[in-house]
Amino acid sequence: xxxxWFYKIIDNINYYRKNIKKNIYLNNVEWPKxxxxxxxxxxxxxxxLLKDEGGKNYLRIDSSEINCFPEKYAPNLSTLNHKEKYxxxxxxxxxxxxxxxxxxxxILLHNSWTPPKYKKMSExxxxxxxxxxxxLFIKILK
Length: 142
Description:
The chain is mainly α.
């Protein structure tokens, strides 16, 4: 599944580069406004692959069942949209104790939602930050 996705991403990027100046559609989907549009490189590829496989070679996991997006359920962030919750949840001082247990040891992160200042940091510099995400990484790396 991942190999098929990977090669389809390459095909889509090459097709996009070749045809970016033409205002054309791929599979009746308008070209993304930015080159990193997740729909174009994600769902547009993954959904048909999942349907083709018919569930034979993969296990679908319900994200709410395993709580892999713990920021969605943070009570003090309930009025915010998911992206705002993510930023406040992972990039502020917060206790990481029991977070992995509550999420069944799987947390899905949104790299594109990471504030630029953290993306620019070295690994060493990032791990020195007193924020939830760096504390989680320290915990995992030990």
